[in-house]
Write a structure and sequence with these properties.
Elements: H1 5-75, H2 79-89, H3 95-111, H4 115-127, H5 133-147, H6 153-160, H7 171-184, H8 188-200, H9 206-218
Helix pairs in contact: 1-2, 1-3, 2-3, 3-4, 4-5, 6-7, 7-8, 8-9
Length: 251
């Protein structure tokens, strides 16, 4: 019996659907377990990532409390209580805590009068590429402050020249040392602009700005932006009083 067009289309569609179901069944029979295993691994990886994030937060919280306790002990003058906590943080997985602990240890060594140990600690911070650049720069500035009196001025310039540029967060502390180093080299022409840039930067602490303005002034540079003088008020032009007309003479 011949099939009508609509019946033929329906038949072909059913055949096509059946073929697709058969192919899908064969595919699942062959690869079904692999798909289940892959999905299970995906869930395990996702669960592990979530656990790691939560665990990292918990560890960071504990380490933050340890750092706070160490700083409190240092502030109270109890160095013996602080040092074990700082040593513990030296092995932290968080670079920021490691850097903070190293800075605290350097400050403690400085307070104890052990400048060589503090310099060595700061040098290790500056050389540690795991730390952000801001930490390494801070270590260079602080290390140079401790060594300034014994360093050749050329070495001070080499260390701090790039850190003392206008707009740098280290302009005040690094720039002041750079300017003095230039003066030791008898380069007042280089020292004056450095002190002037410090004096004009409102982000620099006031005490450093005041010294910089004085130093720049002694070198012939005005580091204070003076406001423009107000325009003088216009004065009326004096007018001579009118003279009375001479009396007419009679002839």
């Amino acid at each position: 019996m011949a099939l009508k067009p609509n019946d033929a289309e329906t038949f072909l569609k059913e055949v096509d659907d059946e073929l697709r179901r058969e192919q899908m069944g064969n595919f699942l029979k062959r690869y079904g377990w692999w798909l289940i295993a892959a999905f299970a691994l995906l869930l395990a990886a996702l669960g592990g990532w979530i656990w790691w994030k939560e665990h990292s937060k918990a560890v960071a919280g504990v380490q933050g409390e340890t750092l706070t306790a160490a700083l409190d002990s240092l502030e109270a003058g109890n160095r013996n209580a602080a040092l074990p906590k700082l040593a513990e943080l030296a092995n932290s997985d968080v670079p920021g805590y490691r850097a903070a602990a190293s800075f605290a240890r350097a400050n403690s060594e400085t307070s104890a009068g052990n400048a060589p140990a503090a310099i060595a600690t700061l040098r290790s911070i500056a050389a540690n590429q795991d730390f952000d650049e801001i930490y390494r720069q801070a270590a260079i500035v602080r290390q140079t402050q401790l060594e300034f009196d014994t360093l050749p001025p050329q070495q001070v310039v080499q260390r701090l020249r790039l850190l003392a540029r206008p707009g740098s967060p280290w302009l005040g502390s690094a720039g002041e040392m750079l300017g003095v180093a230039y003066l030791k080299m008898h380069r007042a022409d280089l020292a004056g602009p450095v002190f002037a840039s410090i004096g004009r930067d409102e982000n620099v602490p006031p005490s450093i700005r005041t010294r910089a303005v004085q130093m720049a002034g002694s070198l012939g540079i005005n580091a204070v932006d003076e406001p423009a003088a107000p325009a003088a008020a216009a004065q009326p032009v004096p007018v001579a009083p009118a003279q009375p007309a001479p009396a007419a003479t009679k002839e």
